[in-house]
DNA sequence: AACTTTATCAACCGCCACGAT
DNA sequence: TATCGTGGCGGTTGATAAAGT
């Protein structure tokens, strides 16, 4: 076992993805959603293994990805979470909306690790270098004293980076608080920031505003079309409640991590009535998806497969010809426009999207 | 300008867990 | 129970860009 059968097949492309491949994969997933990855390459016409497709989607094409530098707040959060979780990048990434485990792992290995070491902190333990280490250092470099190291004050309980107050999230854009949520609701998807559109021609994710102006001038998506992906501002507090504390091996970790999120949860329960945003929770989402599943695509176990990070918003103002067309796969009634923002926050790229009869790249 | 070193990050590899048969 | 297929994860590699000499 171990090696996937698909990887054993010859003639499969490897290496960097071309814009054409990206487009094929993107179109396929937006049409059919995320199902069985092993069948994706064939269905999408790609000479890749399913695993490679999955990785490309998760790490690059997924529309909710946040691009750009890590903020100081994200950086601190990664350090805190790493102290609690170690190299469990997927779990760490789950707490940073729009960031992938790969991205965080790279950031840790290339930046944060060195940063901590410079501060005299052992990145593995998050504690100042041990006495043994210091002695060893003294042996080899007697002229250098350990006092020259800048060791930040760290309690015996853990690093000073630990955040136990939900205000951290509220103040740093890592959570969508009620006021910000209202702003979000009142704005069109195209006004949100950061917003990116993937441009298959350039191979870059373009800020949506740029893309908007571009599409206005060049009608990339058709005369009356605009197409935007946004990383939704955050998880909602219901997501916070979904933090799986059972995965932590020790109770301290569990309580620490839960303290990061539970305050918001309480706050949310007090203020949820004021929210204009209709929220679909996983169970509802599954029901919705199953009810709408007319394309013959299997969503078995979709409840479990919902990616809590997957927040997808599309504003699709389709041209008339586009709006009335139907899927080749058929059996789907079309709608002229669907507001995906109502599927917040636990929206997978689902059949709902498929049902929107939405193929942006027809118009490229 | 040419070459070397370092940093970054996308992608691959190999392993594990789990469900289906 | 054993085997197989698949999804998911973390470690690692290799290509490229940027910085340094």
Describe how the helices and strands are arranged.
Elements: H1 5-8, H2 19-32, H3 40-44, H4 50-61, H5 72-85, H6 89-94, H7 101-118, E1 121-122, E2 127-128, H8 131-140, H9 167-171, H10 178-186, E3 195-199, E4 204-207, H11 208-218, E5 229-230, H12 237-240, H13 251-271, E6 279-280, H14 282-292, H15 302-305, H16 320-324, E7 344-345, H17 351-355
Parallel strand pairs: 6-7
Antiparallel strand pairs: 1-2, 3-4, 3-5
The structure holds a DNA duplex (21 and 21 nucleotides).
Can you tell me about this structure?
The protein is mainly α and 364 residues long. The chain has four domains: 5-61, Orthogonal Bundle (Arc Repressor Mutant, subunit A), CATH 1.10.10; 72-148, Arc Repressor Mutant, subunit A (Orthogonal Bundle), CATH 1.10.10.60; 195-230 and 278-363, no CATH class; 238-274, no CATH class. The protein has 17 helices and seven strands. The chain has helices at residues 5-8, 19-32, 40-44, 50-61, 72-85, 89-94, 101-118, 131-140, 167-171, 178-186, 208-218, 237-240, 251-271, 282-292, 302-305, 320-324, 351-355; strands spanning 121-122, 127-128, 195-199, 204-207, 229-230, 279-280, 344-345. A three-stranded antiparallel beta sheet has the order 4-3-5. A two-stranded antiparallel ribbon has the order 1-2. Strands 6-7 form a two-stranded parallel sheet. The longest helix has 21 residues, at 251-271. The radius of gyration is 23 Å and the shape is elongated. The relative contact order is 0.12. The chain binds a DNA duplex (21 and 21 nucleotides) through helix 1, helix 4 and helix 7.
């Amino acid at each position: 076992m171990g090696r996937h059968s698909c990887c054993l097949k010859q003639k499969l492309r490897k290496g960097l993805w071309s814009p054409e491949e990206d487009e094929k994969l993107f179109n396929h997933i937006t049409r059919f959603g995320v199902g069985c990855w092993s069948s994706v390459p064939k269905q999408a016409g790609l000479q890749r293994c399913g695993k490679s497709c999955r990785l490309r989607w998760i790490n690059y094409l997924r529309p909710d990805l946040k691009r750009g530098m890590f903020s100081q707040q994200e950086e601190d959060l990664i350090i805190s979470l790493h102290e609690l979780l170690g190299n469990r990048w997927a779990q760490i990434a789950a707490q940073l909306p729009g960031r992938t485990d790969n991205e965080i792992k790279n950031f840790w290995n290339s930046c944060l690790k060195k940063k901590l070491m410079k501060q005299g902190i052992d990145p593995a333990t998050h504690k100042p270098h041990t006495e043994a280490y210091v002695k060893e250092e003294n042996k080899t470099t007697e002229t250098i004293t350990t006092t020259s190291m800048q060791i930040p004050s760290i309690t015996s309980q853990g690093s000073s980076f630990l955040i136990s107050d939900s205000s951290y999230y509220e103040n740093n854009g890592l959570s969508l608080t009620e006021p910000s949520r209202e702003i979000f609701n009142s704005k069109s998807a195209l006004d949100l920031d950061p917003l990116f559109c993937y441009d298959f021609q350039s191979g870059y994710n373009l800020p949506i505003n740029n893309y908007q102006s571009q599409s206005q001038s060049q009608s990339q998506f058709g005369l009356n079309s605009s197409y935007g992906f946004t990383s939704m501002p955050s998880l909602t507090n219901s997501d916070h409640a979904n933090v799986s504390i059972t995965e932590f091996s020790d109770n301290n970790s569990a309580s620490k991590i839960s303290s990061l999120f539970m305050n918001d949860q309480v706050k949310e329960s007090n203020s949820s009535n004021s929210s204009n945003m209709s929220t679909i929770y996983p169970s509802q989402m599954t029901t919705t998806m199953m009810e709408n599943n007319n394309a013959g695509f299997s969503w078995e176990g979709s409840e479990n497969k919902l990616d809590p990070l997957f927040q997808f918003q599309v504003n699709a103002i389709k041209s008339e010809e586009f709006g009335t067309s139907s899927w080749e796969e058929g059996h789907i009634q079309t709608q002229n426009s669907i507001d995906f923002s109502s599927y917040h926050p636990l929206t997978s790229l689902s059949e709902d999207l498929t049902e929107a009869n939405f193929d942006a790249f027809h118009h490229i």
